[in-house]
Amino acid sequence: MPPRLRRRRHCAALAVGLFASTFAAAALAQSAGAAPATPIPVVTTPAKEPPPPIELATVPADQALPRVSVTDIALEGLDAEEATNARIAMTVARLTPKQRGDMSEARLQFLLRRIPAEVAKALEPFGWYSPAVDVRREPVADGVRIVVRVDPGEPVLVKSIDADISGEASEDRFVMRELPKIEPDVGERFVHVDYEAGKLRVDRKLAERGYFDAKRTENRVDVRRAAKSADIRLRWESGPRHKMGEARFGENHLRKGLLDPLVDWEPGDAYHRNKLTRLQTRIAQLDYFALIEVSPNDEEIDKALRVPIDITLTPAKRTAYSGAIRFGSDTGVGVRAAMNRRWVNTRGHKWAADLEWSQRRAALTTRYRVPSLRRLPGWWFGEVGYLSEDPVNALGYDRLGVSAGWQGRRDPFSLSARLVFAEERTRTSIRIFDGTDGRQTLLFPEVTAAYRRVDDPLQPDDSLQVTAALRGGLVESIERRSFVQAEIGAQWLHTISDAQLMIVRGDLATTSYDGNPNTLEFPVSLRYFAGGDRSIRGYGYREVGPRFGGDIIGGLHRVVVSAEYQYYFLDDWGAAFFVDAGDAFNSRSEFDVKVGVGIGARWRSPVGLVGVDVAQGLDDEAGGGTRLHISFGVGF
After folding, report:
1. 69 CB burial (10 A radius; 0-12, 13-18, 19+)
2. Cα→Cα distances 226→43, 46, 154, 229, Å
3. Parallel, antiparallel, or unpaired: how do β-strands 551-552 and 547-548 relate?
4. Cα separation of 218 and 164, whole Å?
5. Helix or strand run (H / E) with residue 157
6. Which residues contact 362 (CB under 8 A, 6 or more apart)?
7. How far apart (Å, rounded) are the C-alpha atoms in residues 630 and 551?
8. Cα(122)–Cα(85) distance, rounded to whole angstroms?
9. Phi, psi at residue 380, to the nearest 5°?
10. Residue 314 belongs to what H/E stretch?
11. How are beta strands 43-45 and 215-224 bridged, if at all?
12. Tens digit of pLDDT for each residue in 569-579?
């Protein structure tokens, strides 16, 4: 063959070989799975001495290589998150088990030579810019095992952060105070995720406060590999701050203008997203609508930069019915049924009725409410109710009453005031003093206030509730008497760790009464008792208090404290250890602390916490003993 023809065929063979190699590399990348977390764009300055090139092994063209099966790929020297990203980055690890189980030796060698560069690139987002990667193959029974040993080396640390905002936001302290929070801080490892999160916090704060035209004008990170340092430079141009526009309620079933008092801004006020969130919460608390959307209309911003706020409302079902079978160790087995008419008319009036019956308690209540949305959103209400309680060893009573008043709520606070008129009859098997028939007429005003902070009503992790009540008025039986009562209670739940939490609660109540509490002149509904699931466990329901003739008649004062520790050995199952203490009494000299201790099981069910406790009351004379207590929820 002429020399010129031989040279042409040799060049053609080289061209075909290069094309085949390129095609093979592309096919490998396409056959792999999801891409790893990639480094952010940075300007890097390489070290003075770059690493030597990898030497490629040569194989004679006429020598066939055997097939190889890769049974395992082990990564050593990295934490879990870094190892996950490195594994995703390695082409050989992204192959399917079938592809790894049968490949040529040439292909395996090609993939192994890629690993150091792939792992090094995958570690850059974690601040490791100069790792040492050692790749070994170990023979095993069914093939080979790949071991990738990584020494991350020294991290790249942040040397300086230069972040600033120009425009109107430069005078907004709520935006500017986000700049010092940008992470990682000077001296810390340059982790890309933390850096991106810091930028996004500033972006969100700008949008939250109405700087809708804000943009980043500079976003630069200079990484010097040799010096192991990174310099961050960020710049924002905020543009002007927009203003709140008109609140525009969409078509709904209520009278026009009824919801307007819930809007707490005037057109032209500075824009803040929290105002939209508060409005949505207030509308939701009224329970008129199934779906509420409060959104800025950025397509109709006027020349004064006022942003109209559109409120879209979807009505809820007008009448809701509910029912349940209930059980508690305090009240026994029972049923409950309720009806809620969400709106009676276009003025937003509501009507509700509630029926409850159990072995030791029965109640029937109906309530009519009229919205009062100006100033503090709330309701004027009127209520008629019947309540009967018949504990095993304590005084019981039947009470029929009417009340009227007002209640309002603005999270996390609530307030109510009402006037109560009631007729009550005491249930007892004894006659305490001659001349008392156990009937009383009550008339008194009552004011209650509460603070409630809870992150999750069904399964709270951090919660605090404080309640206070003050009532006082007249009680007429044989004679007309007066009384004043004050109550305060608190419950605090704190999560110690993912598996541990503490619950601490306390209750203090006192009464001033100008009669004799050891007669039936004072109503049972106003007396204080202790004992039961949510009081002192190890004692029966309302079985702690002053006694007369074998019956617990209750006292004028009550003090109860409790501490409970819960440990969850599974996500939804745990154990509880608790101690309760307190007493109900008529005078300081009668105060005698009753203590109950015990253990229990806890289940975080889909509808709330379920507790089963075995408690031991330590005072036998006061009714203490071994008791089973079953409860639902934690009282928030």
Report:
1. middle
2. 13, 6, 10, 8
3. antiparallel
4. 10
5. strand 157-166
6. 356, 386, 387, 388
7. 25
8. 6
9. -90, 140
10. strand 306-315
11. parallel
12. 988 899 999 99
pLDDT in tens, 292-349: 999 999 889 999 999 999 999 999 999 999 988 877 767 778 899 999 999 999 999 9
Specify the 3-state DSSP secondary structure of 245: strand
* Token reading at 62: 């006429």
Report whether 527 contacts 585 (CB < 8 A). no
Contacts of 176 (CB under 8 A, 6+ apart): 165, 169, 170
Got the DSSP string for 187-237?
TSB--HHHHHHHHHHHHHHHHHTT-TT-EEEEEEEEEETTTTEEEEEEEEE
The DSSP result for 511-577, as a single string, is EEESS-TTSTTS-GGGSB-B-STTS-TTS-TT-BS-EETTEE--BSEEEEEEEEEEEESSSSEEEEE
User: What global pTM score does this model have?
Assistant: 0.73
* Sheet arrangement for strand 132-140: 70-76, 143-151, 132-140
How far apart are the C-alpha atoms of 524 and 512, rounded to whole Å? 15
* Interatomic CA distance for residues 620 and 634, integer angstroms: 28
Rounded CA-CA distance 547/545 in Å is 6
Question: In sequence order, what are the residues at sequence separation of 6 or more whose Cβ sits closer than 8 angstroms to the Cβ of residue 194?
Answer: 183, 184
Q: For residue 99, which of 117, 111, 88 has the smallest C-alpha distance? A: 111
Residue 636, token pair as written in the block: 């928030």
Alpha-carbon span 611 to 503, nearest angstrom: 13
Residue 442 above 90 pLDDT? yes
SS3 at position 591: coil
Q: How many residues does the chain have?
A: 636
Confidence of residue 606 (pLDDT cuts 50, 70, 90): confident
- Give per-residue pLDDT as tens, 219-266: 999 999 989 999 999 999 999 999 999 999 999 999 999 999 999 999
pLDDT tens string 68-108: 899 999 999 999 999 999 999 999 999 999 998 888 989 99
pLDDT digits (tens, 9 = 90+) for 19-56: 333 333 333 334 444 445 555 555 544 444 444 444 44
DSSP designation for 254: S
CB under 8 Å to 506, separation ≥6 — which residues? Answer: 489, 490, 491, 560, 561, 562
The alpha carbon of 159 is separated from its chain's Cα centroid by a whole number of angstroms, namely 37
Name residue 464's amino acid.
Answer: L
Give CA–CA dist 467/452, Å, rounded.
Answer: 8
How far is 404 from 384, CA to CA, in rounded Å? Answer: 9
Q: pLDDT tens digits, residue range 529-544? A: 999 888 999 998 888 9
Sign of CA dihedral 158, 164, 169, 171: positive
